[in-house]
Amino acid sequence: MINERFASLQRKTILSVAILISAIALGARLFQMQILNQDLYESKSVNNSIKQIDQSPLRGIFYDRNHKLLVNNVPAYTLRITPTEYDTSLNHMLETVLKFEPGYINNVLFQNRNYSKYQPIKIKRGVDFSIIAWIEENSQNLPGIDYIIEMHRGYPGGINGSHIFGYTREITKKQLEKGSEFYKAGDFIGYSGIEKNYDRQLRGKKGKKFILVDSKQKEIGSYNDGSDDQLPVKGNDIILTIDAETQKVAEEEFKNKRGAIVAVDPETGEILAFVSSPQYDLDQFSYITSRDFLDSLYNDPEKPLFNRATMSIQSPGSTYKMLVAIAGLDLGVITTSSTFNCNGGYTFGRFFKCHGVHGRINVVEAIEKSCNSFFYQLILKIGLDRLAEYSKRFGFDSKTNIDLDEETSGLIPDSKYYEKAYGPNWPRSILLSLSIGQGEVSVSPVQLAQYTALIANNGKTYTPHLVRGYINNMGKEFDLKSKQLNAGIDQKVFDVVKKGMYLVVNGAGTATSIRSDDVVIAGKTGTAQNPHGKDHAWFVAFAPFDDPQIALAVIVENVGFGSTYAAPIAKKIIETYLNSNKEKSLEQEKTLTHLENTVSESKREN
Q: Is 442 helix (H, G, I), strand (E, B) or coil?
């Protein structure tokens, strides 16, 4: 028989040992948590009661090439709703005041349902002050409704620039799902133009603000008196290559017209003016953009969102004749003394017309008078594939890589293209249409501007670009590098072609109506055939003739001849830019002279 007293004592001992071991283990764990790992668990505890709020930085602003302010940030009111405090019975009244469609607020609340109900949701940006005053006056009866002041885009430079600047819009759910360490729901991101292409430069660095919150994430005050907060860092300011005055004139010239202009510095590739018309109102994108406005843009038959300067491709017409002449001269197929006969056209299977009867004519005269017959015969000596090769040297058939995301390559057909379309026995008469810039050959205005810059600068230039550099937060200016282009053709060839372009304006050519006493312009008219209406008018030019400072391409759609409609626009833009530059040079000379006189007087006094 087991001794009951011994069994009871044994149980007591075992129990005591177990309690002692548990106490030692618990004590050790508490020592580890409270002494050894104090910082770790204190941090976790603090995180349970602190909320980090991102502070959006000011977006970088835009200047023109002369540091004139074009795009800035302006304060505006943003209306918000906090779901936990808001009474949805106020929807109808608020939608009426804000002029929203019925159901708008419920839709916004539904879209943001996955976020904290204590997190304010932005309802409308750019709210008029009269509405803010009404909210202040009735705040006791408007629970959960408040407002903040945010910065939005303003355009003080008097320039529309919709296809240059682009716009920002609230980031979409799809974009967030792709993964963005910088952006969160409700943030604005660059959507087009420079705003999109240079978004990383412009957006800056977010700050952090730490707020004490309760168990329901409701804000109850700042943490540690804000000593741990981090201020946001403003984005870099962008210096554009465009000249504000020239851009204004270009936009004015294209009012109520459809088309585009691209003007560049032929030596640097810097874009001096850039217009795609019609444009659209960027102010409408500064805030929450109305669906009606967006629908009006998408459904507009004039397609204002379409960037004609980089995306529209048309036949270059007679502006392409210089390329044919360059190929012929460089290959040695013709010389300056070579001539072809023009009796009003040329027969090759059928009769191909010319604009007139020019008789025996050389290459300079052919460019001056835009003689089709000369180029019909020249291309047959050059051949399709060799012409395609020279076209590609001048940037056709590929994107220029202008610093905008939207651009097309155009088309320069070769023998493989026609073999695929017609078989090995494709009709050679197609060549004659190509020689005068018709048929399948197609280019964009920016490509034609680059081509003109290469001619003006003897075969060398840089990739067309709209951004010269940026200014960081320390005020230091940085230039951005562009790729140099070289057509690899002897200057003597360009001298011949440029002489022909000079005579187009200053001889007996097709653009004598824009001859100027102030500046010597060289150019070439062109007409792009349009099966759907009136032809498109082209004009390419550079000036001054002996020291090119501007080269451009202009297209006006559905109007007729380039000499009548496109050339006068080019003249106005050229004169504006060169006169503006002349005035700046005179001002700089006066400033320099004043400084020199001041220094001289100071030396005499000493």
A: strand
Read off the pTM: 0.83
Q: What are phi and psi of 476, to 5 degrees?
A: -90, 135
What DSSP line would sit under 514-543, residue for residue? G--SSS--EEEEEEE--TTSSPEEEEEEEE
Please identify which residue in the block is written with the tokens 């708008």: 104
Over residues 373-401, the pLDDT tens digits come to: 999 999 999 999 999 999 999 999 999 99
Radius of gyration of the chain (CA): 35
Task: Give a yes or no: residue 499 inside a domain.
Answer: yes
| Closest by Cα among 316, 57, 313 to 204 | 57
Token pair 């204590």 is at which residue?
118
Whether the Cβ atoms of residue 108 and residue 170 lie closer than 8 Å to each other: no
* 57, 208 Cβ separation under 8 angstroms: no
pLDDT tens sequence across 203-215 = 999 888 888 876 6
Residues β-bridged to residue 147: 79
**Tokens 């050959």 label which residue?**
441
* Domain shared by 231 and 337, yes or no: no
Interacting residues of 224 by C-beta distance below 8 A, sequence separation 6+:
210
Q: Is 180 helix (H, G, I), strand (E, B) or coil?
A: coil
Do both 219 and 321 map to the same domain?
A: no
